[in-house]
Amino acid sequence: xxxxxxxxxxxxxxxxxxxxxxxxxxxxxxxxxxxxxxxxxxxxxxxxxxxxxxxxxxxxxxxxxxxxxxxxxxxxxxxxxxxxxxxxxxxxxxxxxxxxxxxxxxxxxxxxxxxxxxxxxxxxxxxxxxxxxxxxxxxxxxxxxxxxxxxxxxxxxxxxxxxxxxxxxxx
Length: 171
Known about the structure:
The protein is mainly alpha-helical and 171 residues long.
């Protein structure tokens, strides 16, 4: 249902029918996958920073090539970081269909231009600096720090130093 809602933000010519991540078959899925990859690397880095194993998660399937805990934690931030970045770029026409090339490669059916990659990275990095309320920060902090604080809370629960994990409520 979530991606049915996301789909409404893309004009029909974007070809976004459903979420397909590997390989992304259309420009919308390619944008989402790239933004999720950026978020995943930052979440995984914070998990390693606090000394947890990013591959031992709770909700995502465990596997040698899947950082399950990082995928678990990033779910909390996907809508407010990655999805917002992509939707703002598309709705603001900073990235258009002209930024993509259809290939004949079944492993990579769509390719983003270098300029579009740079725009996504810049918008993503800017979003991480946006302020958000976090109770462990005694008020406002940026998203980058909020991710770290949530991972630290997760570590406290895993180490049985806290009884429960409280997801970050976005206001």
